[in-house]
Write a structure and sequence with these properties.
The chain is of the alpha+beta class. It is built from six helices and three strands, in the order ββαααααβα. It has helices at about 45-60, 75-80, 90-95, 100-110, 115-130, 135-145, and strands spanning about 15-20, 30-40, 130-135. Strands 1-2-3 form a three-stranded mixed β-sheet. It is globular, with a radius of gyration of 20 Å.
Length: about 170
């Protein structure tokens, strides 16, 4: 079965994951486990939620107690202002406050409450099936532009049509 083509829409954010293999350096073989997965994100409705999901992954996995403790997290940049010249803030992050301190505080406040399980499920489903994460009207636009499936299909095989008696 051929692989689905990737979404590529300039200016539209994507959530991308790639699992690594090299836990200790004595291993040989590929660096990455399989092909990366990605989903297009409706930034107005889901970007900050997706950022919270990503930042909390090491906490959910029991690797750290707080997202700021994870070495590869951008939480310290977004919540405490740590310098990271390779990161460029999204305009929705910039809209969290008119000053740097207001944005840092607002970002930390986003983490005071846990993500809803429905949100976590929606993010995982869109990512694992490489679909679109967003509002229905956003999905409709992406479907028209890309001519690709953007929603989850119906489970199971299609029903056979009954033969018409003639």
């Amino acid at each position: 079965m051929p692989r689905k083509p990737r979404f590529h829409l300039p200016g539209v954010p994507q959530h991308v994951i790639q699992r690594g293999n090299n836990r200790n350096y004595r291993c040989t073989g590929t660096l990455w486990e399989g092909r990366y997965k990605a989903c297009v994100i409706d930034s107005d409705a889901w970007l900050l939620t997706c950022m919270r999901y990503i930042e909390m992954n090491p906490v959910r996995a029991g690797m750290v107690l707080h997202p700021g403790e994870y070495r590869w997290s951008s939480y310290r940049v977004n919540a405490y202002g740590k310098d990271a010249p390779v990161l460029k803030p999204h305009e929705l992050y910039l809209a969290l406050g008119t000053t740097r301190d207001e944005r840092l505080f607002a970002y930390r406040e986003l983490f005071r409450r846990c993500l809803d399980e429905n949100q976590v499920h929606a993010i995982r489903e869109a990512l694992n099936q490489e679909l679109v994460l967003g509002r229905e009207d956003f999905k409709d636009v992406i479907a028209r532009v890309t001519r690709r499936q953007v929603r989850r299909g119906v489970d199971g095989r299609p029903r056979a049509r009954k033969a018409l008696d003639g």
